[in-house]
Amino acid sequence: MSQEKKSGRRRFILGGLGLTGALLVGWGVMPPRQRLNASKPLPVSNGEVAMNGWIKIAQDGTVSVAMHRSEMGQGIHTALQMLVAEELDVPMSVVKPMYVPADKIYGSMAALADGLPFHPDDQGSVKRVAQWVTLKFARELGLQMTGGSSSVKDAWQPMREAGATARAMLVAAAAKKWNVAVAECTTKDGVVRHSSGKHASYGELAADAVNSKPGDIRLKRPQDFKIIGESQPRTDAAPKGDGSAQFGIDARPEGMLYAAIKQSPTIGGRIKSFDAAAVKSMQGVVQVIDFFMEGAVAGLAVVAQSYWQAKQALDKLPVIWDDGEHAQLSTESIFKDFASKLDSESGFAYYKAGDVEATLTGTGIAKTIEAEYRAPFLAHAAMEPINCTAQLKDGKLQIWVSTQVPGVATDVAAKVAKLKSEDVTLHMAYLGGGFGRRLEVDMVAQAARIAMETKGAPVKLIWSREEDTTHDMYRPAALARFKAGLDSAGKLLAYDNKSVSGSITHQVLKRTFGLAGAGPDKTTAEGEFDMPYEIPHQRIAHVIVPSPVALGFWRSVGHSHNAFFKESFIDEIAHAANQDSLTFRRALLKDHPRHLAVLDAAVQKAGKPAEGRAHGLALHESFGSIVAQVAEVSVQEGQIRVHKVVCAVDCGIAVNPNIIAQQMESAVVFGLSAALYGEITIKDGKVVQSNFNDYQVLRMNEAPAVETIIIKSAELPQGVGEPGVPPIAPAVANALFSLTGKRLRSLPLKLS
């Protein structure tokens, strides 16, 4: 199972979305490039036949489906197999996942288009043109990425199309073989049948089908789905249950060495000196490497016969560090700078309506509400330690790694090793947690650099938990200020929101692609400017402050903290207006029936809280999906306890309800860890937290019961992996206000 970067492409004209049942094939004005056939045929063996760039069929009828997205526990491989199985008319039992060589047809398009800073309610021509241009650019770029909760949304068209096309080719081959009309043939469970009683399996027909002309291609109508929409067992459950699943850290090439690393403890620090001779005589130690790379964190690696030997030697390695210019950096100084920027700068306005300033100072305002909210840096803390195995031998580089960006990882490894990308083979594996951390390729660059010194021997680089926690690319810290105005009847007339943080996108563009980041960054203000609430006068702006702290994409990105800010403040306004939070929100959603339906479903299912507990409500849209959560909370001996969460979600067509429920449960637990405990602090230029003893995550006995309601929808599938995270923190905070009368405006939530 490997991936190699390839180039070249053929054209195929994509048609409609398939919701009406017809796939229209034909040229348009500057049509998008095809996503059916890869630049090179899929590799085959033992009589397999590649039907297109997504599907292979074996003689026994087994269907192998290209897994162009990374499986990191979110169940995406199962969902992608379902798309093909539905249109190909085969049972899930015969469908198998396969890793494929990288190709532009597998590139991410939806995630890039979703990154445009347009309001969801905007249906104007400028937005449509910008999305069209972005999709064209994304297709040409061919960036293969798992992120932005976009995998199913992006695969919905091409993978169903691949299945439908392969099915039509198989039917055409059977019709020709039997000398009958195509229309007289049907398919079911991997078999083509004719009314005369003739039948043939896909395995028998595949070789002839490759050369057949499929004619008109039609995608199934949603009402005809037999697999999509039905809960299916996860195809990765069995190998993960019996231990046969291979994660990046499981790589074991013959003759493998191990590397442990130590990086500058101070942000931006460098190595002043080190004494390799002090540890070279220790048992198993092979060498000590200064893996300096321009633009990377300075560090040292000890290579040894085992990881324990490498780590023991590393701990005893004498190193003197140059702390650099950020030795005085602290959480307090960062937030002081944030406050200063909010005082002095107006920021970039992502959304404006009416005249906020004139309204807030006008005679129609009977009450003004102001508040300031704060969120800390957060680490990813994925369970699988950061790792990468590399072998440079005979001018070829092999990489074994869990990654969300295989193409980028390949390119970076090639650059470090001074090779062409086609000389790098990347072996894909399951990810033991990603959450955005494995969108980064720092571990790949380091492993490639270390492999250059090991004389052809493969070397596995493993970060300790302490290195991971103190050298992450963190969720940005942020500060937000709000001001709202109510009239005498309690109606919300004006809403002003300005926030400040560093920019993830600016840093990633420079760190990964060497591009200068500039201009607005949607991720900084998402969840604030794109809210559905109908407020006559509003302005939502953001100020970007360059961050010396490394920033990265964290599960649900800007929505993760901006939802806390926005949904908590909406509750504040409702309280000031002497209205309950549900009634107040419903009045602001009169023209948003989908949001109302989700909100009402969650509240109705939640019912009334148990005695001594309170309900907190939050509603948030992210990655195209609408989620409402009701958290049932109590305070026990001064500690916050979340007992139950009712979660309603409208994510468009629900491909696999079972996975959607699992992801909502996962998101609640992940989000609660951050809401109750998550905080990375900086002191004297260093990250204070180092392991799970001081960067705590939710324990099993603290996990609430989660009940998920999936709203039936005919809309296209939207994101699932991340949208359940943003509402949980404000839902809990709003419940705590009902219980205690205290409005908690900082994360993590603390009663004292």
Give a verbal description of the structure.
The protein is of the alpha+beta class and 752 residues long. Helix 4 crosses helix 5, helix 10 runs parallel beside helix 11 and helix 15 packs parallel to helix 19. The radius of gyration is 27 Å and the shape is globular. The chain starts with 48 loop residues before the first strand and ends in a 12-residue tail after the last helix. The N terminus is likely disordered.
Fraction of helical residues: 25-40%
The radius of gyration is: 27 Å
Give the averaged pLDDT, no decimals. 94
Major beta sheet, specifics? 7 strands, mixed
Distance between the termini: 52 Å
Helix count equals 19
Strands across the major sheet, in which order? 10-11-8-18-15-16-17
Alpha-beta classification: alpha+beta
- The low-confidence parts are 1-30
Shape: globular
**Number of DSSP strand runs:** 27
Kindly estimate the percentage of residues that lie in beta strands according to DSSP.
Answer: 15-25%
Q: Any chance you could write out the topology, listing elements then pairs?
A:
Layout: E1 49-50, E2 55-57, E3 63-66, H1 76-88, E4 95-98, H2 110-114, H3 125-141, H4 151-178, E5 185-188, E6 191-194, E7 199-201, H5 202-209, H6 237-242, E8 257-263, E9 270-274, E10 285-290, E11 299-304, H7 307-316, E12 319-322, H8 331-344, E13 348-353, H9 356-360, E14 367-375, E15 387-393, E16 396-400, H10 406-417, E17 424-427, H11 442-451, E18 459-462, H12 465-470, E19 478-486, E20 492-501, H13 504-513, H14 522-525, E21 537-544, H15 559-576, H16 581-587, H17 593-606, E22 614-622, E23 625-636, E24 639-650, H18 657-676, E25 682-683, E26 686-687, E27 705-710, H19 728-740
Parallel strand pairs: 3-4, 8-18, 16-17, 20-21, 24-27
Antiparallel strand pairs: 1-2, 2-3, 5-6, 6-7, 8-11, 9-12, 10-11, 13-21, 14-19, 15-16, 15-18, 19-20, 22-23, 23-24, 25-26
